[in-house]
């Protein structure tokens, strides 16, 4: 479908699962991953206040919107922050993200 992109999710065992994600519903990556039954707490409901939706971007980081001050401040509270860590609640799905590859932060 023309309004879908492919998001690749690295699973804990190292395998990669590909998902078709709609770009015409206004979903964030966090909302899409929760709907795909990934174990994301998203305690704050997507307000960039808890960092429980953190993902590590493995491929496609250059396609993402610039990090806001709020997102950076919340990520900075994580003891194991990586340079490619992002809050999935702050990433609106869009056509530029086709092929994005992520894994849940802190999951080997």
TrEMBL record:
2Fe-2S ferredoxin-type domain boundaries: 3-108
UniProt keyword annotations, A-Z: 2Fe-2S, Iron, Iron-sulfur, Metal-binding
Pfam families per the UniProt record, alphabetical: Fer2 (PF00111)
Organism: Pedobacter yonginense
GO annotation, biological process: P450-containing electron transport chain
Protein name: Ferredoxin
Cofactors, names only: [2Fe-2S] cluster
Stored Gene3D superfamilies: 3.10.20.30
């Amino acid at each position: 479908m023309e309004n879908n992109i492919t998001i690749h999710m690295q699973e804990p065992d190292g395998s990669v699962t590909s998902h078709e994600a709609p770009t015409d519903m206004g979903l964030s990556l966090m909302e899409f991953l929760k709907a795909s039954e990934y174990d994301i707490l998203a305690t704050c409901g997507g307000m960039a206040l808890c960092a429980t939706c953190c993902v590590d971007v493995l491929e496609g980081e250059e396609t993402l919107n610039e990090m806001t001050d709020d997102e950076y401040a919340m990520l900075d509270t994580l003891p194991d922050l990586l340079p490619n860590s992002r809050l999935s609640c702050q990433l609106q799905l869009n056509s530029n993200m086709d092929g994005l590859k992520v894994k849940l932060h802190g999951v080997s």
